[in-house]
Specification:
heterodimer; A: six-stranded mixed beta sheet; four-stranded antiparallel beta sheet; about 45% strand; B: mainly beta
Chain lengths: ~110, ~120
């Protein structure tokens, strides 16, 4: 199975800050990497798919990059509504593992 | 409007069974692969399994933690996805989400999720 790790596990930042979350796969997954954000008590929403493609409707301050084993999600200018838990997920092979999550507090 | 609505959650004793349903509307269900994802209280997301869109042709896929105990099925005529859960354990306690895989690319991302249904396994 492919293991996913994320760092940091949590962070606290201010409005306007640039925030970067890292996701690492235990083996190459090409660009089969998606990012989700989940707010408390709510279902996750898709932010980025295929490592770097922004989902329709997602603000342009979000961006994704990376390939093979190392990926990043960047928020260029953190906004109050960006709080929540961020998860990466690999869809290269089953089981389609998620990273443990990064909690973002503002 | 695209909607996914889970139902069937509740309290069940260890060793018991429960069947979850996910009924969809607003899109052509038979065009999409569908997945189940769960989240234990205070924990992260865990992939449970996957249904390709033609169950007569393809097999389902399962996480090791549920394989042999959980069964995914679907009825395209009823726009519904199911999760039959048997031999439930306390560690199966979680909110269970159904999620739609996009049909617009090959990356299998979930572009739509249900609101989730809570399953509590406890004596």
């Amino acid at each position: 199975d492919i293991q996913m790790t994320q760092s940091p596990s949590s962070l606290s930042a201010s409005v306007g800050d640039r925030v970067t979350i890292t996701c690492r796969a235990s083996q190459s997954i090409s660009t089969y990497l998606n990012w989700y954000r989940q707010k408390p008590g709510k279902a996750p929403i898709l932010l980025v798919y295929a490592a770097s493609t922004l989902q329709s409707g997602v603000p342009s301050r979000f961006s994704g990059s990376g390939s093979e084993t190392d990926f990043t999600l960047t928020i260029s200018s953190l906004q109050p509504e960006d709080f929540g838990a961020y998860y990466c997920q690999q869809t290269y092979s089953a089981p389609r593992t998620f990273g443990p999550g990064t909690k973002v507090d503002i | 409007e695209v909607q996914l609505v889970e139902s069937g959650g509740g309290l069940v004793q260890p060793g018991g069974s429960l069947r979850l349903s996910c009924t969809v509307s607003g899109f052509t269900f038979s065009d999409h692969y569908m997945d189940w994802v769960r989240q234990a209280p205070g924990r992260g997301l865990e992939w449970v399994g996957r249904s390709r869109n033609n169950p007569a042709t393809y097999t389902m896929e399962y996480a090791a933690s549920v394989k042999g105990r959980f069964t995914i099925s679907r009825d395209n005529s009823k726009n519904s996805l199911y999760l039959q859960m048997n031999s439930l354990k306390t560690e199966d306690t979680a909110v269970y989400y159904c999620a739609r895989e996009t049909k617009y690319n090959s990356y299998g991302d979930y572009d739509c999720w249900g609101q989730g249904t809570l399953v509590t396994v406890s004596s």
